Amino acid sequence: MSLYKYILFSLCLNSQIMAQSESAEPAKSTETVRPLIQDFTAYTLKAGQVKIGLVSSVGITDSIQIDTDVFAASAGAANLSVKTSVWSNNRHRLAVGLGMSYLSKKTALWGNASELFDELEYKIFRPQMSWTQKISKRLLLHSFWSTGIGPISVKLSDKGRKKLWESKYPDGDYDKQTKSSSGTADDDANVESNNVVSHRTLQVQSLLGLSRDIIQVSGEFVRDSTKRVILTSRIDRTELEGLSSQGIRVTAGQEWQIDSFFFRLGLGVLYQVLDGTDLDGEVIDDSGFTPIADLDFYWIF
Question: What is the pLDDT of residues 160-210, one digit of tens each?
């Protein structure tokens, strides 16, 4: 929680700096800028509006929308969420929601899941809450929280464990359980390869919407009616059987609006800590920085 307070303080400080720079700049038109429709904001689509993108949505009423993560669904993770705006005034808006995700060997759409896994089943329910504070005409602060509740059962088959081992240690020997061709078990380069694969495994799980806990704070600065800058700090926790990760990421990006089309591009860094036992039975204790992108595109009609 102290880390969350630090992030909130940093964003508030940035907000004050942006507000001071805003007062020093000549006024630009923001009359036609649309609210930021994302899971981490408290805004919802209007009745009948449709958002088509990596996350697609439809407005049921002016305060209720239904979402589905297209990327996760394309990998076989069926998902659906409902978001409702429950309270608002001139400066604040609060929304709550509930999401559901399901993945199994039968629904998985990558590789030969039935051959690589003896068990594979996710059933996740995700309550969430979004709060948007309008600090000024151009400056907004979005706070988001969600938690994943439900069982996750993953067990590799013999073929799956061998494939995971070989992806970690391409120069090793699975049958002899040596991590390098020389037979040196503690080869630094191979251990590093092991950690990279494990980091990526949990990052993919996060992209599929299966993270356990997420706390995110984002600052939005509206430059004009077609451009906005978004600064984001996020803390998340992910679990995969005996392996868990805690990560904190910071990103900065700009979003452009061209008629009904929106495009966001940014960069950032992720610091992730891994701890526990991987699916092949190997004990892992590692941490490190990874560059990440903040990329999104969608249409609103």
Answer: 888 887 777 777 777 777 777 555 545 554 445 455 666 556 555 555 666
Q: Distance between CA 212 and CA 15 in Å, rounded?
A: 29
* Partner residues linked to 65 by β-bridges: 59, 83
User: How far apart, in whole angstroms, are the C-alpha atoms of residue 12 and residue 14?
Assistant: 5
Query: Contact 174/162 with Cβ under 8 angstroms?
Result: yes
Task: Please give the single-letter amino acid code of residue 174.
Answer: Y
Quick check: 43 and 32 in contact, CB under 8 A?
no
Count of beta carbons in the 10 Å neighbourhood of residue 16 = 12
Q: What is the pTM of this model?
A: 0.81
> Using alpha carbons only, what angle is made at residue 293 by residues 290 and 298, rounded to the nearest 5 degrees?
155
Q: Which of 257, 223, 225, 221 is nearest to 30 (CA)?
A: 225
**Running DSSP on this structure, what letter comes out for residue 88?**
E
Helices (H), the chain: 2-24, 70-74, 113-116, 158-168, 188-207
